[in-house]
Design goal:
This protein is of the alpha+beta class and about 290 residues long. Helices cover about 35% and strands about 25% of the residues. It folds into three domains: about 55 residues, Uridine Diphospho-n-acetylenolpyruvylglucosamine Reductase, domain 2, CATH 3.30.43; about 120 residues, 2-Layer Sandwich (Uridine Diphospho-n-acetylenolpyruvylglucosamine Reductase, domain 3); about 110 residues, CO dehydrogenase flavoprotein, C-terminal domain (Enolase-like, domain 1). The structure holds flavin-adenine dinucleotide.
């Protein structure tokens, strides 16, 4: 199906194979269009210079959440509403559930998609830190085949990704875990709702007798991409949590920080808030043990 207006063209295939075929022929010509909640804003602001859109909206196999023993697998055009309504995600991956509840308001949650949030590649987006905290993987597909990449390897720089020019995001999968994890996600913004983050931290941690046995962290709005701070995770591994170790970890964390400055905040502000947020996260872990 193709829609035309005087300036815009929207092609809306039903089959994924057709999407991939068209995208492979003219990837530079087509702009993928999922929910359109980022793209419509860009179009109206005059920041989107592509006027030929390839809609994913009618491709049924791209939408839906599948749960098996190993993974929760989320189709790229699943909406925030789909995520909020999924019980397994609510119970096992509360950081992602929280991200979906934070995103926009009901209209955006009903239309905006997980694939669009990832594809837009904003360092301030809400789902990516949650996905990183759960060691998620992204499936990229093209006419050449499909491949899974670790989410933490997906973003390569400001608004750049490791996807080839003919690849689209088709699914996201999150490994399910049998052990008990502590989940933490906090977003700092100018107000409680409908706010783009000035900084946020998502974390999933496995503790045994106050010792950090497994940890995965995802920061938004700290660097040009959402960030998995591997060296900080390594510093945390094996640490026995106490008031003293938390103080030392905060100091070490503060020394490694190189935050960005952008329209929402300065690097100086972010350095202070990031250290406070990191300390709050560590204290919340300690309070879980008591
Ligand atoms: C009022 C308002 C409030 C918002 N609040 C938040 C918020 O709180 N938190 C937040 O994170 N975001 C927020 N957003 C941004 C936006 O809603 C999300 O990023 C949303 O997930 C985008 O999804 P979409 O399907 O609408 O993407 P689209 O607008 O359709 O696409 C976004 C980008 O991703 C690309 N893309 C889409 N699908 C794919 C795919 N499958 N593979 C590869 N590339 C793809 C598109 O080409 C485009 O570049 C808000 C937006 C608005 C307008």
């Amino acid at each position: 199906m193709t829609f035309h207006s005087s300036e815009l063209q929207m092609n809306a295939p039903v089959a994924l194979a057709e999407v991939l075929e068209l995208y492979a022929q003219k990837a530079s010509k087509w702009k993928l269009f999922a929910g359109g909640t980022d793209l419509m804003v860009e179009l109206h602001a005059g920041h989107c210079h592509q006027h030929q859109f390839l809609s994913l909206h009618r491709v049924r196999e791209l939408r839906g959440i599948h749960v098996d023993e190993q993974f929760v697998t989320i189709g790229a055009t699943s909406t925030y509403r789909d995520i909020v309504n999924n019980e397994v995600i609510a119970n096992e991956f509360p950081n992602l559930h929280q991200a979906a509840r934070w995103t926009g308001a009901v209209a955006i949650q009903s239309r905006g998609t997980l694939g669009g949030n990832i594809g837009n590649a904003s360092p301030a987006a809400d789902s990516p830190p949650a996905l990183i905290s759960y060691n998620s993987e992204i499936e990229l597909a093209s006419v050449r085949g499909r491949r899974w990449v670790r989410y933490s390897d997906f973003h390569t720089g400001y608004k750049t990704t490791c996807a080839a020019s003919d690849e689209i995001i088709t699914r996201v999968r999150i490994p399910r875990r049998k052990e008990k994890f502590v989940h933490f996600y906090k977003k700092v913004g100018p107000r409680k709702a409908l706010a783009i983050s000035k900084l946020s931290l998502a974390a999933a941690v496995r503790l045994e007798n106050k010792v950090v046995c497994e940890v995965s962290l995802g920061f938004a709005s700290l660097a040009p991409t959402v960030l998995k701070p591997v060296s900080i995770e390594n510093d945390l591994l094996g640490v026995h949590l106490s008031v003293d170790s938390i103080k030392q970890l905060r100091e070490k964390f503060q020394q490694t920080l190189r935050p960005i400055t952008d329209v929402r905040s300065t690097a100086e502000y972010r350095a202070t808030v990031a250290a406070n947020l990191f300390e709050e996260f560590l204290k919340s872990l300690l309070s879980c043990c008591e």
